[in-house]
């Protein structure tokens, strides 16, 4: 006998962020393999490092345009990588619930001025759902 472990998804209703968004639901892949989960954590760690490097340049050598430009480029590339990762995490459910990396980028940019906390909430809640499924945090 062989076991097949499918991609397990859990619904993330945006009503948890704001009641006005009720019924808009993401399907979050909660059992990706460890290497897929590590992709996110490595990207998050590097994003924090880039922020620290940018702050250091701002504080100590604001004229270092070359280093600033390099960090800006790396930051954009990292964001594209995270968008692709989120696309995979949010696209394991039914076909009509899947989101492309390009759509995620456009969505993030579109809400930046109107509701900047929403995107962070979506990502954070998705990570929490994964961690709950993996048993690394207590379910709420």
Structure description:
The protein has 140 residues and is mostly helical. It has one domain (34-134). It has four helices and two strands; from the N terminus they run E-E-H-H-H-H. The chain has helices at residues 34-60, 65-89, 101-111, 116-134, and strands at 9-13, 25-29. A two-stranded antiparallel ribbon has the order 1-2. Helix 1 runs antiparallel to helix 2 (65-89) and helix 2 packs across helix 3 (101-111). The longest helix is centred in the middle third of the chain and has 27 residues, at 34-60. The mean pLDDT is 92.
List the keywords:
two-stranded antiparallel sheet, mainly alpha, 140 residues
Give the helix level as a range of percent: 55-70%
C-alpha end-to-end distance: 35 Å
What is the succession of H and E elements?
A: EEHHHH
Per the principal axes of the C-alpha atoms, what is the gross shape? globular
Radius of gyration: 17 Å
Number of domains: 1
Integer average pLDDT: 92
Number of helices: 4
| Residue windows where pLDDT falls under 50 for at least 5 positions | none
**Structural class from helices and strands?**
mainly alpha
**Number of DSSP E strands:** 2
How does the major sheet shape up? Answer: 2 strands, antiparallel
β-strand percent reads 5-15%
Order of strands in the sheet with most strands: 1-2
Per-chain topology:
Blueprint (H helix, E strand, L loop, with lengths): L8 E5 L11 E5 L4 H27 L4 H25 L11 H11 L4 H19 L6
Antiparallel strand pairs: 1-2
Helix pairs in contact: 1-2, 2-3
């Amino acid at each position: 006998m062989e076991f097949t472990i499918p991609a397990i998804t859990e619904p993330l209703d945006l009503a948890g962020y704001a009641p006005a968004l009720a019924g808009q639901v993401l399907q979050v892949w909660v059992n990706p393999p460890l290497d897929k989960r590590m992709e996110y954590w490595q990207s998050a760690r590097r994003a924090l490092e880039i922020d620290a490097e940018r702050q250091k340049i701002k504080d100590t050598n604001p004229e270092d345009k070359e280093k600033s430009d390099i960090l800006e480029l790396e930051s954009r590339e990292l964001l594209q990588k995270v968008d692709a990762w989120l696309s995979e995490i949010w696209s394991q459910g039914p076909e009509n619930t899947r989101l492309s990396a390009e759509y995620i980028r456009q969505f993030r940019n579109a809400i930046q001025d109107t509701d900047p906390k929403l995107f962070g909430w979506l990502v954070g809640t998705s990570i929490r759902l994964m961690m709950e499924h993996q048993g690394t945090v207590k379910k709420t």
